[in-house]
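Backbones bend. To wit:
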Amino acid sequence: MPLAAHAVIDTVATWWRDRMQISAELEEIGRLSYEDLEEVASDCGMTALQLVDVIKAGPHGSDEMLALMKALNIDPDAVREFNPRNFREMQVACARCGSKSECRSHLADGSIAGQYRDYCENADVMNALRAQPMMLSE
């Protein structure tokens, strides 16, 4: 089988595994009472609606945020360590974002640093992080 065919099969298999994981997690969440769902969400530092949206976005729902941080020379580990709540809020915003295709396109063509301010809900936070030397990659 050609190498390109293997890549396509791997991509589809990964997509399928992610969809199955999302489905199982949503089913599990669906069995909780609303009070329990609120408690789990609170433990994660978010609302019940945000938690459901994050689960629906899947395990890679905020990958664009990490890629944007790297493109802007922001160290995701430093942000996660020094401000975990802010980091989580940014992940939630990214997972719930409606501009993912635009963001992915700009990440792919290398134009993200000049474009993200036009649509990214995390733009103000990203700009604030860029102004803090301890949050920048070395």
